[in-house]
Amino acid sequence: MEATTTAATATHKMSTMDYVYKVSAGVSNAILVCLGIGLLLQSLANFVHWTALYQVGAIAQVLLGPAFGVAIATMLNSNTLVTFSAMISSTIGANAVFSLSPQLTASQRRGIRWPKQLRARFLPPVNRFRPLRLG
After folding, report:
1. pLDDT tens for residues 41-76?
2. For the whole model, what pTM was predicted?
3. Which 3-state string (H, E, C) describes the chain?
């Protein structure tokens, strides 16, 4: 009996409604975990005045882009190659990758808008003067 149900499930094609349901479930899971838990951690950190916990909450919110890719790929039962490529492409698509290089000007930096407390801690000051190269 088990073998026939497994074989029937393996040959079952997903309909458009199944895809829509699974993708929306993945999106809702990603939003709940990243934004919900991130905001909860930040609120708790503000209450107890714990800077490290506030930073973890801010980082959890930044990771919403990769969470979308991983959650949708996982809900669609994809293999690991597709899951990690979805994570990378959604990270780039959400503009969650940014450079912390001091050679970049402030207008060249892209990514999230950090809260004022974290901006001074994570982003180095911009060096407007470049050293003179001789030779």
Report:
1. 999 999 999 989 999 998 888 889 899 999 999 999
2. 0.61
3. CHHHHHHHHHHCCCCHHHHHHHHHHHHHHHHHHHHHHHHHHHHHHHHHCCHHHHHHHHHHHHCHHHHHHHHHHHHCCCCHHHHHHHHHHHHHHCCCCCCCCCCCCCCCCCCCCCCHHHHHHHCCCCCCCCCCCCC
